[in-house]
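Weekly sync notes, structure subgroup
Attendees: PM, AL, DS (notes)

Item 1: joint prediction request from the bench team. They want all two components modeled as one assembly rather than separately. Inputs as received:
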Amino acid sequence: MAAQLPEADAQVPSLALAPAGAEFTAPRRGWLRSLDVVIPAAMLGFLLFLFFVWPLFGTVGKPTGGNILDANIDPFSSGHLFGTDPVGNDIWSRILYGGRNSIEIALAVQLIGLIIGGSVGAFAGYWGGLMDSVLMRVLDVLIAFPALVLALAIAENLGPSKTHTIMALSFFSVPAFARISRAATLRLRERTFILAARLSGTGNARVLLRHVAPNVLPQLVTFGLLGMGVIIILEGALSFFGLGIPPPNPSWGNMIFDGQSILSAEPRLVLVPSAFLFVTVLSFNLLGDALRSRWSAV
Amino acid sequence: MSTPAVAADVTTGLRGRPGRVASSPALRLIGKRLATAIPVLWGVTFLTFLVVNRLPGDAAQQLLGINATQQQINELRAKLNLDEPFLSRYFSWLGHTLTGDLGSSFASDQSVTSILSERLPVTFELLAYALIVSLIFTVPVALIAARRPNGIVDRVTMAISMAGLSVANYVLALILVYVFAVKLDVLPAIGYVNPSDGLGPFLKSLTLPAISIGFPLFCFYTRLLRADILEQMQGEDYVVTAAAKGVGPWRVLVRHALPNSLFGLLTVVGLNIGTLIGVTVIIESIFALPGIGQALVEAINNRDLLVVQGIVLVLAVVVVIANLITDLLYAVLDPRIRYGRTAA
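Output from the run, pasted for the record:
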């Protein structure tokens, strides 16, 4: 059909070249083609089901307030899948509620990063000039500052709690999102469709919201997914210093930290939360990686 | 970091400037980067002062404990100049620092410079060990993986490296301790041996901490280097030229693609130094290494403001210098930047 148009002939060489690059990416058909996304997504879905839904229906004990008489029950005993810890709390239950804490914190931190960092970066990249320079210097300060120190100081200053952990960890995510979003906006700003929008009299706010944001967002969401693992690990690190989620409330970090002192006698106290930490972070990384390669192939 | 862009700015801004020295891109780059580093360093020290100052309780309270009377606390506070206003204390610290005097610890009276010279070597030895070992493994593994993309070696390498990226350093550290110190009893679980007390025991004492830091790094670097080499192999004209001239596949990989990919990797190594310093804080406290990270945590707990300030300042300077060296390497090694940007 297109060949009937005379000017289409000039386009043939470039059209013929396009599939040559694409043949690496699309050999498989149907749902198999999405296997790299489906598997980690299913793993994550299962973990999220365990952390958020299973305790509502399943027979899961309370994560705190265990009886000291039930201490150190072996794994796979009745009612205690992974046994109990030295104060008599069910480890399986603490894993599930700890996982819920980890996911909630990481999600909140990444959302704060996405919203604040993402919009600050987009503004800076779009307008450029003095505002951009000042903003980048501020980000340089935050990046040159050992961020863990800042997080420790904030958590220590405000006292350990879930909200304060989220605030402390946001100091990692906000500058990171701002950088990504600024770089993406800088690239977009030069594109023809943005120029066309501006030439046709579209206001700055509308250009940012309707043209820049939809194009930056997929990249930021992918970055956010990859960052979930980092934040979950950092949240554990805060617990390691006695900050983060305050005991006796469970978090994988404080479970690992508590188990550390009796590592040689009861390694499962460290190994079980570590395994869940690993699988969760791995799922986020695999999903983020698959989405990123898909996104960059387009 | 838009490193190449910064370097390119400097060189393109040079046109029409007289004088050989002034037009040396490297010197101009150093000048420009040092000028932007000053407000950054100032911001970091001010932020630290502000943050530590806002912590509940001060050094006087922490040192005297909860049984101290208000009068004792007030006396110590006056002695440590803690009763002066915040800004005047900050500027007096800044003035002393500019003359090279970092003050001394509230807790031990030891000078901050001597604390730094005691603790910094341990951390640097640990980081150097971790970096060297991870880079030694990265280059051959990435080459073998990139030789046959999607081959069996490549897939296994990618799977291992993805797993390595998903392990928290502290988890890896504890598992290593459990396997190598508790079960096999071949390496020490904690403690640090001075290099002057024998090189063997010194390396042994740092091996587990170095692996805890180095293995995830190795995974990260290998993925990066492999992706970069593959990009060079698939897209670049010089690779096609070399292959067309009859150069063997390994030789194209090692002699043509690798050098180009390698300094991309070095850039990432340089820019990542800051993140690594954060990691050492945790690893040092797990392995009870008397490094800068432990000193920092101690000082924060004691509200030992001047020690915190000194350490954060040194760490920020290290990060700034590492970034500067990375930019310089770029300018010196990459002809496209050395001779000015040709493509718009």
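Discussion: The interface with chain A takes residues 2, 36, 39-41, 43-44, 47-48, 51-52, 54-56, 162-163, 165-171, 174-175, 177-178, 182, 274, 277-278, 281-282, 285-286, 296-297, 300-301, 308, 312, 315-316, 319-320 of chain B (CB under 8 Å).
Action: AL to compare against the crosslinking data before next sync.
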